[in-house]
Amino acid sequence: MSDKQPPRPDASQPAAAKPKSGVDCATVLEQLWEYLDSELLPEHMQAMRTHLALCSRCYPHYDFEKAFLEAISACQCTRCAPDDVKCRVIDSLRRAGFSPTSSKSTG
Ligand SMILES: [Zn+2]
After folding, report:
1. Whole-prediction pTM value?
2. C-alpha of residue 55 to centroid of ligand 1, in Å
3. Res 4: pLDDT
4. Which of 20, 36, 49, 65 has the least C-beta neighbours within 10 A?
């Protein structure tokens, strides 16, 4: 007597898209940062790219994280203080009587 139903692998899967690219959604989301940093093998990069192009669930994650990385890289371009801070420092020094240039005020 076997009233235990065996698991059916071909049962209707949830709506998770699983294209024939070799990677599933969990793998894509797990390795998304490495993909964006191009740290994966070329064939795996291609599999990730294919999945992201086909899967509407993973693409928003990719789009968000890509924009996030772009914002970070944009910030790293200006490591020195912004001009606004420089102006405020120089303005404070001038008020304290310090003049960066030896300009004689005749008046
Ligand atoms: Zn997916």
Report:
1. 0.51
2. 5
3. 65
4. 20
